[in-house]
UniProtKB/TrEMBL annotation:
It comes from the Bacteria. The lineage of its organism: Bacteria, Bacillati, Bacillota, Clostridia, Eubacteriales. This is Putative membrane protein. The keyword Signal does not apply. Keywords: Membrane, Transmembrane, Transmembrane helix. InterPro entries: ECF_trnsprt_substrate-spec. Pfam families: ECF_trnsprt.
C-alpha cells in the first residue's frame, strides 16, 4: 500500500511538471488568439484524472487553474479580468467571480473524465471508446463552464470589451465554443486515447475501484 501511494505521488509530480512546463512555454500551453487564448493544458489534467483518480485529478486541475491565474495576471489579454481579480482594463476589473471561473471548471476537468471513463467502461468494455469520451468530455467541461460562467458573472463587461451588444453576447459565446472548444475537445479525445492506452498497460493503479 505504501509503495502504491509513493508510486501515485511520483506520477502526480510528473503530471504537475508537465502542466507547469506547458504553462511557461510560450505559444504551447496557452496559445494566444489576440482577444483570448486556446489551451492544451487540460490534456494532462484529463489523463491524470483517468490514471490517478478524481482526488489527484482535482489537484491537477487546481494547478491548471493556478497557472491560468498567474498567466492572466502577468501576461494579460483584454479579457483577462474574467480570470484574475488582480488585473483591470480601464473600468473593467476582476473580482471574486474571476477566481471561480479560473479554478472551478479546471478542478472539475480533473474529476469528470474519471467518472466518464469509469461509466463508459461499465456500459461497454471498450478502452478506445471510454478514453475518447473521457477526453472529449473533460475538455468540454472546461470550455462550457468557463464560457457560461463568463456570460453569467461578467456578461456586461465582456460584451463591452468585445464591442458587441449584450443581447447578442451569447451568440458570441457559442461561436467561441464552436471555434475553440470543439477543436480542443477533438484533440483532447485523440491524445487522451493514444497516451492513456500506453500508460494503462503499465499502470498498477486500480482505476475502476
Amino acid at each position: 500500500m505504501k509503495n502504491l501511494k509513493t508510486n501515485d505521488l511520483v506520477k502526480l509530480s510528473f503530471f504537475v511538471a508537465i502542466i507547469v512546463l506547458l504553462a511557461v512555454t510560450p505559444f504551447l500551453g496557452y496559445i494566444p488568439l489576440g482577444f483570448t487564448r486556446a489551451t492544451i493544458i487540460h490534456i494532462p489534467v484529463i489523463i491524470g484524472s483517468i490514471i490517478l483518480g478524481p482526488f489527484y485529478g482535482a489537484f491537477l486541475g487546481f494547478v491548471f487553474g493556478l497557472t491560468s491565474l498567474i498567466n492572466n495576471t502577468f501576461n494579460p489579454t483584454v479579457t483577462s479580468f474574467v480570470f484574475t481579480p488582480f488585473y483591470s482594463l480601464g473600468t473593467y476589473s476582476g473580482n471574486f467571480w474571476s477566481l471561480v471561473i479560473c479554478f472551478v471548471p479546471r478542478i472539475l476537468v480533473g474529476v469528470v473524465p474519471h467518472y466518464l471513463y469509469r461509466g463508459m467502461k461499465k456500459i461497454k468494455n471498450n478502452d478506445v471508446l471510454a478514453l475518447s469520451v473521457a477526453g472529449v468530455g473533460g475538455s468540454l467541461t472546461n470550455t462550457l463552464l468557463v464560457m457560461n460562467f463568463i456570460y453569467l458573472f461578467f456578461g456586461q463587461s465582456y460584451a463591452e470589451v468585445k464591442n458587441v451588444a449584450l443581447s447578442t453576447l451569447y451568440g458570441v459565446i457559442l461561436s467561441v465554443i464552436a471555434i475553440n472548444g470543439i477543436p480542443e475537445a477533438i484533440v483532447a479525445g485523440i491524445l487522451t486515447t493514444a497516451i492513456c492506452k500506453a500508460l494503462l498497460r503499465y499502470s498498477k493503479a486500480p482505476i475502476l475501484q
